[in-house]
Amino acid sequence: MRVALVNLYRALAERQMLIGSSGNVSARDGVGMLISPTGCEADSLTADDFVKMSLDGSYDGARAPSSEWELHSAIYRAAPNAQVIVHTHSDHATALSCLNRPLPAFHYNVAEFGGEDVRCAGYATFGTPELARLAADAIAGRSACLLANHGMIVHAANNDAALASAIRLEALCRQYLLACSAGQPRMLSREEMNAALARYATYGKKQEII
Ligand SMILES: [Zn+2]
Q1: 61 C-alpha vs ligand 1 centroid, how far in Å?
Q2: CA of 200 to the centre of ligand 1 (A)
Q3: How far is the CA of 124 from the centre of ligand 1 (A)?
């Protein structure tokens, strides 16, 4: 699991999804989680650097966990289906989060994240329980949310799905901002999004890229 998390972190870095040491990844591990360490660098990260910790914050080991561990912990507590979490400050998701707006129903792929939009959690200082609470509320019933003036977070059933989900959310934010720069995108109607949601439910998550 540790090696798979290193690979996930590096895959995000290779796609310019992580800037400097911003962004972190974790996986549920029994009643706790394994999470990337604070001050994490893709080039030097090793499997041993991942920190095994309980969801209430206790840990052993040489390295301290990511300062955003409570963000991850709150989502594992609130979403039993969350097995892997990716948090990034990827460019376009972060740009949209700075407008304090959700990613709306401008494209049917938005339904992939479980609803008619991807909500934007209100702003709170990084690394605080308040941010963790706001994010858990915003992601409820969905697999992703934006974090105001900060970035994005996704959860998935496994590493590959989490990587794909983060990449697709970043792409959708880019496409939405691009559409907005050219005009006013036509939003899909409630009926159109409900049809897309039903379609995703029918096809299942493995065949979601249509
Ligand atoms: Zn962050």
Answers
A1: 23
A2: 29
A3: 11
Question: Looking at 68, 70, 112, 116, which residue is catalytic?
Answer: 68
CATH number at residue 37: 3.40.225.10
Q: How far is the CA of 31 from the centre of ligand 1 (A)?
A: 24
Alpha carbon of 4 to those of 32, 100, 113, 153, 165: distances in Å?
17, 33, 23, 19, 16
Cα–Cα dist 10/25, whole Å: 10
What is the domain count for the chain? 1
Contacts of 183 (CB under 8 A, 6+ apart): none
Show pLDDT as tens, one digit a residue, over the chain (210 residues). Answer: 999 999 999 999 999 999 877 899 999 999 999 999 998 888 889 999 999 999 999 998 789 999 999 999 999 999 999 999 999 999 999 999 999 999 999 999 999 999 999 999 999 999 999 999 999 999 999 999 999 999 999 999 999 999 999 999 999 999 999 999 999 999 999 999 999 999 988 875 555 454
| Cα 88 to middle of ligand 1, angstroms | 6
The dihedral of CA 88, 90, 93, 97: what is its sign?
positive
Q: How far apart are CA 92 and CA 90, in angstroms?
A: 6
- 191 is known as an active-site residue: no
* Residue numbers of the domain that contains 97: 2-207
